[in-house]
Each structure stands twice: as C-alpha cells, then as structure tokens.
Amino acid sequence: MNVENHPLPGPVPTGAKSSRTAIADCDIHPVRSQPNAFDPWLPARWRAHLQTYGAGRRLGMQAGPAYPKSQPNAARRDAVPPEGGPPGSSLAFMQAQHLDPNNVALGILNPLQTGQGIANPELSAAICHATNQWQVAEWTSKDKRLRASVLVPYEFTEAAAAEIRHWAGHKDFAQVLVLSRTGEPLGNRRYWPIYEAACEAGLPVAVHAFGYGGAPISSTGWPSHYIEEMTGHAQSCQAGLASMVIEGIFERFPTLKVVMVEAGFAWAPAFGWRLDKVWEQLRTETPHLRRKPSEYLREHVWWTSQPMEEPEPRTHLLDTIDWMGWDRVLFATDYPHWDFDDPALALAVPITDAQRKSFFLENAKNLYGVQA
Amino acid sequence: MIEAGAIDCDIHPTVPNLKALLPYMNDHWREMVITRGMDELNSISYPTHSPITARADWKPAEGKPASTLARVQAECLDPFRTSIAICNCLYGVQLLFSEDMASAFSRAVNEWMAREWLDKDARLRASIIVQTQNVEMAVDEIERCAADPRFVQILLLASGDHPLGKRMYWPIYAAAERHNLAIGIHAGSNYHNPPTAVGWPSYYTEDYVAQAQAFQTQLTSMVCEGVFSRYGHLKVVLLESGWTWLPAHLWRLTKYWRGLRMEIPWVDRSPTEIVKSNVRLSLTPTDAPPDKAGLEKIIEHMQSDELLLFSTDYPHGQFEGMGVIPEGLSADLVRKIMVDNPRATYSRLLETVS
Q: Is the ipTM above a cut-off of 0.85?
C-alpha cells in the first residue's frame, strides 16, 4: 500500500471480565507482526528464496489481493494495535478488543496469506510448516482459549498429509485448513491423501473461502469488482463442495468432517436440493454414491456463520437454519476483518435458548471436542 | 393445472445435424464444413443420451429428440395446450473459437429456425442465437433478425469468455432495448473457461449442478456493472437456471452491496429491488425442497409473484408426465406464471404477427 490511512483508535483495555455469555468464534485471523515473522522457523534456503524471488502465486501481482479490498488489509479500522503492526498481529490487543469483551471461550485461528496455494510446492510446504509452529509459539501457547489450524500445502498432497501427521495428537490444533480456490475441485483424487490423514488424526478439514488456484473466480472469466469476487466465493465454494460429494469422499472417508468457513451458508439448502434432483436424474453416472447428496452434506458438513446473510425480514434466515440443522452452524466473527459480525448483533431474531447455545458455543465444542 | 393459453418460455427444437444448416450458409462456409470434414457441434452441456438431455418417452427411435416439428407438436405444444412457445436452440455454435465461423453458424441457425419452424407453426417464437466473442458481429445479427417480430429474445449462454455485465457486451443490451427484445441467458457454456471456478470437474453431474453457480455469477455481474442502471427497461430471463437459489443469493449480494456500494456507485438500488423489476427466471427445473411446505417457504422468500415464467424445458428430462407445475404453488400464482408474467416480460409477444 502506498498511501497513508488513518486508523481509528481502538478500545482501551480495561481488564474487566465480560458479563456476556461465553461464545466460540470459529474464524479468527492472526496476522504476522512483520513480513519476516516466520523466519525463526524457515530454513535458510527458503528465507533466501523469499528474499530473492518472493512467494509467487497463481496471480499476476507480486503481492496484494487480486481486487483492492474495501479497507486496508480488509480490516476494521479500529483494529490496528496501539503498539503498531497490522490488525490481528497483537495477541494483547486481540484479547482486549475481542476475546475478553466478547467472552470468547474458544477461538479457532485461521491464518491467511501465508504459503497455501502458492506456485512453488516445496516453498508452500515450508511456509505452512513455519506458520504452524508460529501459531503454537506466538498464539496458542500464550492463550488457552485459542486453537490453531494445521495449514497444509494442499497442492503438494504428500507434504500436506505429512504435515497433518506431524501435528496429529497435538492438543493445540483443532482442524486442518485448506483454502477454497484450489487448482482442481476439492473432491479430486489428488487431494484424497489430505482427507485420509485428517481422518487418521481425528481432525475436521476446514475449507476457508479465498486463495488463488489459477482459474478465474467464475466459470465465465474474471469479473471487474471486489464485490463480485466476494459474492463469488459462495459459487466457488459450491463447486468445491459439489465435487467432494459427487466424487464420493464421504463414502471413502466416512468419518470425515468438513467445515465451510466464510463462504456464507444460506445457499446450502437450495444447493442440496439441486444436487439431489440432478443426482436422481443422473445417478447411473455415480454408482459409488449410496445416499442422496444432501444427506452427505447434512451429516458431514458444518458451516461458520460470518458473513451471515441478511434477508428482510431476518426471520427468513430461521427457515434456512431449520433446513440445515441447528447443530451444524458455528458462530464466527472473522476478526479483525471489516465485515466482522458482532456477536451482540448477529442473528438478532427470536430463537430458543437451546438454539442460541448451539449456535454460539455448543456446536463448536462438540465438533472440535473441546471443553471450553 | 395447465392454464389455457399457457406461454412456454423454454423449449428446445434441435438441429438434427450440421447438414441441415448447409442450405442456410453461403458457399464459403458450406465448402468449409465439407472440405474440413467438420464434426457435429454437440456441446458437452447436454450429452446426447443423458437422461436430462431428453426424457425417456421423448427419445425417438432414431435421430435426435425434438428435431422434427411433428414431434414437438405432439409431445409438447398440444399436450401442454401451449398458446405460444419460445424456441431456444442449443446447438454448439457459441463454442467455436473463430468469431467468423461462430457468427456464420449462428446466422445459419437463426435462418433455419425461421424457415423450418416459425414459418410452419404460428404458435412458435424464437430467440436470436449470437456468439459473443465479437460483439459487433452479434449486434449485426440482432439487427438482421429483429426485423422479424417472431424473434422475441437474444440468447446468451450462462458461461462464456467474460462475465456478461462487462461493458464490452453493452451494445447487445442497447440493441435489445432498442428492439424490445429480452435477454435470455440459458444454461450452458462455451467452455472457453473451465466449467467451475476451481477447474474442470470429473462428472457431468457436477457440470449440470454448476450451471446454477454460473447464473449466480452472471446476475452478480450484470447488477454490479450497472447494466440495469443504464438499461432500465431491459428484461433478463434466466433460462433453465433452477430458481430456488435466488433468495439466498440475493441476501448475500444485497448485504455486500450495503457494505461495498462505494465501489459501484452507479448501482443506486438494492440488488433485490433490481431483480424484482428486471430479472425473470424460467420455472423448469424446480430444484425443490422435499416437501410442499418447504416450497411454499421458498415462494415466500422470493417476495414477488412476478419472477417466474412457465417453461417445460422440452425435451429435457426434468419431470414426469404432465407434472411440470410443482406442488405448493397457489392457483393464482400458477396463472401468473403461465400467462401474465410471460406477457409482461416479452413485450414482442403482444405485437401482432402477420
């Protein structure tokens, strides 16, 4: 970024405990305090490589997003830590601004813009490994409410499976993380070793929207605007999820759990109905599927809430969650990003206490096997 | 529940083979077809023998389904008591990579449509087929066909080279508005891009499911680029799109519009409002929830009874027997879908055809 921006002042930490009900936040983005923050865990060769060649992506620009974001770093303007560094880079400030006042009992870390999906597979593997060590050293070992994601170099499947096996059994890791915009649809056989290793380790596989897989973000080429890219992640995620179902990974890996993160969720029911209808018509093509596609979705897929769709009237969203199952939606804020969903304002519709507890905390505890 | 006077907005008379188009090509293209030994232009969007491509009881013993007028009359127009049916020809001319060839073959399809179909049954209307690689050539073809009032729409595919809202395509929308033609966007791709945002899927099932995602993308693009801000009277019809995805998509798009409208200041109404006034969807296929109550809820989420247009999608296999109308629609809504909404959408249907 070549211009100054003017962050808003954030809250002053008071140290006071929140009186709010405890919640789980299933999508928090910790950020490097400076570009070389992973260096302690990167071999010299890759430090030199990054210095000389950068982390080339399947995208034209050397750095930055394909579409300029709406805010610097796509972050809340009040999320810049007082001690400096980008939003999301200070644990102390994250605690003061978000974890403490919102009474986050369980926070799932999803580091983005690391080395996932970059062009060089070995570099991708090295950065993912460094990021995982950084998560433990700088975050989960310092705040027991936080759980890390095993970042994997998903386009280099052998290394991805090895990375999962490396961390298997480590209590600080709650899930495996891949990005949605993969080089091939996610159900493709080349990715199966990731699912195999995740099942062995007993970890869900989270698919976070974003990344650059090489194809345009639509079946019809590149759109012009950031709003189209953001909206388009739902379509991109539908393609990946359709592939997972239709390729039969849930038959092959019956214990696999998938978490769709920051992809929206209201599209899930109609997506399931369409899959079912088309599958019924074309079922001779996929004899490896023994159940309706929507049944695999219902049993194997969880959904984080942010960015929560906002129908008018809001109550229409209750129909949607009824169709999906109240046990499958996980509250998430996306802290520190600009489209943060505030737990005090999200889902501002009349629901039962049981539904509220499931949505804000219990579903996440059950999925991740965490006593928070 | 078929209303008398029903207007069927999506049927697919089929080009029997490339040879059938030769009479409608000039000497050069006829020679190219023969000398180069060109293959049939059968798109993978509809594998010839797939159950969706043709319903079992609409498959002839020989040849392609819906390739003769007698069959279309006996299987579709007569039983569904159709007063008017709009022919959307799906022959893979848009897939060609040469813009000259794609234009010449599109023109041949339009001529074939007028002579072999529209001239022979007064109930039939048609869409103008255009390639979109060369917009100037597309507009020339629209101007040529628009003189015939039986062409009521311009047909584009759900996936092409670029999103359809891009300014390069606006001369097509200007021509549509000039001639009171609707813009129809039909399921299918020219496959100049992979069929999904994450590349090529392994199964046809995924390709067909992904059509809904392509429509969502095009709707986003046309709204965000400001097509409807510039062409306020334009009607865009999503054909064979499925439609139960629409409410959730609009919730998402409208939320982002509220957060990001500074990027697209020319969009001065919410996407939900724009769709209510300018976008319509054909009824078939109905990707319905498993129960009638679920469909009633989706209808409520649509928040308008003007969005859906009756279609059989003949000869595609989307329903059994005469069961084109899903359970859960009120009699009032069915009448609007079958008659009123198509008439309000296709202004050329109200013109006298001599």
A: yes
